[in-house]
Amino acid sequence: MIPLFVYGGASTGKTSTVLYMLRHLKRPFIYCSCVSCYSPSILFESILNQILLHRKNESGGYLSAKRCERPSDFVNLLGEALTALIDSLNGNMGKSSPNGRMVYLVFDRLELVRECDKSDSIIPLLFNLYTLLSCSVLSQFYRITRRVDELSTAFSPLFKKYCEPLGDLVAVSNEDMERKLYRHLQPFISSSQNETFTISSQPLLKDRNLRKCVFKKSGVCETLDEIDFHMSTSAKYLLISAFLASRNPATLDASLFDSTGGTDNRKKKKRKVSEKSVDQKEAKEQEILMKGPGTFPLERLLAIPQCIASVGGYSLDNEELQNDGLRSDGSDSGSMSDILLQLSSLCRVPILLPKVESCPLEGSTRYRSIVSEDIVLKVARSLNSDDSEFDFTLKSLGLNGGLTFVCCCNPFALKKVKL
Amino acid sequence: MGVENPAEVAKFIIRSRIADPLFVYSYFSQLPDSNYSKLKYIISSSVTEACNNSVLLLGPRGCGKTAVLELVLEDLLKEHPDMISVVKLNGLLHSDNNCALKEIARQVCMEHQLQFSKMASFDENSKFLLSILRECGLAHKTIVFVLEEFDLFTEGKQRLLYSLLDAMQSVSSQAVVVGVSCRLDADQLLEKRVRSRFSHRKLLFLSSPGEDFQRLAEHILLLPMDSRLPNDFRASFNEKLLNILAGEEFKGVVDQLCYSDSTVSHLLRFLFCAVCHMDLSSGSLSIQNFKSALPSIQRQPKQEALKDCSVLQLYLLVCMKRLEVKEVELCNFNSIMKEYKSIPDSFQTCDNFARNVCLRAFEHLLQRGLVSFQDNRGQGQSTEFRPVKLLISWHELQQGLQSFPSCPVLLHKLMAREG
After folding, report:
1. Which distant-in-sequence residues (6+ apart) come within 8 Å of B307 by Cβ?
2. Number of H-type helices and E-type strands within chain B
3. pLDDT (tens digit per residue) in A16-49
4. Which chain A positions have a beta carbon within 8 Å of B384's beta carbon?
5. Which of B93, B96, B385 sits opposite A291 (nearest CB)?
6. What is the per-residue pLDDT across A171-183, written as a single tens digit (0 to 9) for each?
7. Which residues of A touch B338 (CB under 8 A)?
8. Are residues A145 and A18 in contact, defined by beta-carbon separation less than 8 angstroms?
């Protein structure tokens, strides 16, 4: 038989159909997925283990039946194993044994082979496996790709909501009732559409729909969630400062993080700026936004939280002394090691990414922040809700749909500017 | 026994014939001036005259080089039973010198029932090869070395080729080296010292033109005298088949098939598909079977991927196309979102989704292969900022939109508008 290639979009049922059909017809088959067999030797050994009906167990030290690294060994061993298997299948005609003399080799998610190390040699090998096996046993060759269905996570809460008015789920619904149910459901559809691809963390999804909504001018209902993971306060500061450092160029630091809270700038007389230069400035800012977050050196990252924190009267260590409102300025030595520890954990998350090409001779490595704005806003808001005298607000300047973030530390103003 | 059974038997017979290359290419062996007869003459003359020889078989993939070689060897083994032994090597597996020598030793030992030691070193294997050649020469036995994927042996230092061809230069050895390659310039890849030892015999396998195909199809599809088939069924089947094969429609289908690829294996796959579509109740092949097999051979992967997309993904693709038309130099997810958000300003639409949903849809597009990153360098940045490019053309996108089942009219309008 000629090899078969099964292809298609994600979660269309390729793998399940093939495996179900083979099991239903009781054909002997060997299945290996290129997700778990990411290198050639693992692939070869997995196939051989299945043919030789060998299971890795503790007594054998979790070893495979045969060690096989080179393609030439693999083809030889595979040929021998297949002939032995076919002989045993022919001889054993019991009821529980599989039908037929043809052994099927199923390779799942074959597109991942392109990304493995020796892909140049492995891909033609797998494609030509059929012709290389010049023994009397014929094998068929399937290739499948597969992915998990994401729609089910979105639809299950919607369905629960849909069924809410129905006290009795067994009741047969007619069209009138369906229409009423749909109208009841409709406001939630748009909000849950926007959450189609979320993977819910442990708090139940029901809570999300019941949270209070903040209505914007356009009338679209958006739920502002709290962050549902825990971060220490110093880590939150580092995250916010990393974000600001990435988005704003270094030259603005002086004006932004001035200890007087930037109020001086506002008092200065504003020159009349011409429209053209305003447009140019906007265009440049747009461009910077489009290109993505920039990199910043480690010293800048460490300097910013100090500025922010010193304005707000909060020291970056001694969280348990927060209630006293200590303004301890002799505690800098202790804070530095904490910050570096936080830094390494942020890199692992990853919230910060070190720029790879930086030369170690240049000094410290540069980092780049890869969190999005809404997470930073959530973190900032959570800082607001902490019991401190310090009011940290992020003010956004809308420019034709783009956003430039400017940090505005205002310990005395009680007005909060909401987005 | 109803009509079902003979049709199924007929289908089974034809399919097993198609899958058997030796049967298919035996048609070519009947032609007088074919490569089959030339190759047979070369090898048999070197066997009978006890001289060394080398020949290259060149031709595109699927032309029947290996199959013709198999036929020749089979015939020669029947004619001169004890005077030929065959060693088969493949460039995909044995391009490394050590592997190749080990494989030669293994095959020779298997044939002559000698003890093969897996632990034998490279030196021992090469000495073994020389002594085998000498012994076979003394015994007037020719060894035929078949080197498939010959061009892969020419990578690196070509040690194996050199040692083989050099060993053949001695008077006492009798060997024929047959190289099979799909690269038509395989002999240009040889090093100077190897090329000087190579006799420049080349056999070119060209793909068969269209009118030959009709006779080949008759050779395969006409049912033979078989005990399982009733005679009248066989006669009617063959008659109907001959009518179809001689008709104009069939010629049209074959011409369309040969535009892209006119090798024999391509045509065999087409015949296999057509036979699979055979309607068992009517009991014979019809021209409709051939026509329906054509699209499954000439697939359009991008069109299929487009049909699989969701409406949101189509919106994103159209936005990317518009950006291309506007000649925006930086095209990444942010700029696409900007374009997407500008649509509701000019048109009334309900398809306004949030950013994270669009990002996920965009990632699905990346996975499906309709868009891709422009370069591999930006690994440190997230998906939103890396520049992307479209992998389908304007024409394909338009065709996809037209064939999409429930495409919003808005998309057509957006495609048509320039600004």
Report:
1. B400, B403, B404
2. 21, 7
3. 888 888 888 887 788 888 888 877 788 888 888 8
4. 292, 372
5. B385
6. 444 555 555 555 5
7. 401-402
8. no
